[in-house]
Amino acid sequence: MSIGDALADARRQAGLTITQVSQRTCIRETIIRGIEHDDFSACGGDFYARGHIRSVARAVGADDEELIREYDAMHGAPQAIRAADVFEPATPIKIKERRRPNWSLAMVLVLAVIAGYGIYRVVDSGSAHAARTQASSGQVPQQHQTQPAAVSSSPAATPTAPATPAAPAASQNVVISLTAIQDCWVEFTKPNGRFLSQAYVVGGSSKTWTFARAVKMDIGNPGGIVLTVNGKKLGSPGAAGQPVMLSLGPGKPVTS
Q1: Which has the minimum average pLDDT: 41-55, 56-70, 124-138, 151-165?
Q2: How far apart are CA 179 and CA 215, in angstroms?
């Protein structure tokens, strides 16, 4: 009996539909149908195919180790894989670099305003002192005896408040860190369900993803991981072997 036949027979004996298996494993129905027909082309490679076979087998009560050995006998045992190949997202993620404010220019402007205000205060204080001295001695300026003082058309200098640099815009990225205690597969999709990337994180390793917008995260073994989102440690988001789906966004609470 082939791998696909074994999984299909176990699913029927368990009284489950392909849709129910998809909901339990968070694996798309098209991939499960392909596996039941021994078509692993939609899995994305041998590495992910083994992870899908293991998850489906556990969901329907089949012997996943026996099925993995049969898959290796047909397709060859797994070769050594670089960590960069395992944890590289399927879709490149563009990270918007946030421009830093020019604090040096802001400081120069503030110092210039303070210096101008100091000069103004010194000149204004000198003029007021001279006027008080003339008034106390009974002397009246000649121009005051012959004509009214002319009203200056130019407004008096007004000290300008120091410029305050604009605060940098808050980050709109979603930063997701996963530390695996046990093996766990994850899949990321857009809120509309469009596929973004998929990864299989082995126990004892960690992985971090950064997205520029809100995403949905399917987790195959939530009880075997520790999750941190936007710097906030969430712990294990579910029970071992019970897949969950989380909605994650910038500055938004985590929702299932």
Answers
A1: 151-165
A2: 19
**b/e map of 120-138 (b: 16 or more CB within 10 Å)?**
eeeeeeeeeeeeeeeeeee
CA atoms within 13 A on the CB side of 236: 16
User: Under the phi-then-psi rule, with left for phi > 0, alpha for psi from -120 to 50, and beta for the rest, what region is 160?
Assistant: beta
* 234, two tokens: 């969430």
User: How many Å apart are CA 35 and CA 32, to the nearest integer?
Assistant: 5
Give pLDDT tens digits for 106-118.
Answer: 888 888 888 888 7
Using DSSP, state whether 78 is helix, strand or coil. Answer: coil
Q: Measured between alpha carbons, how far is 80 from 227 in angstroms, rounded to an integer? A: 27
Opening angle at CA 28, ends 180 and 203, nearest 5:
10
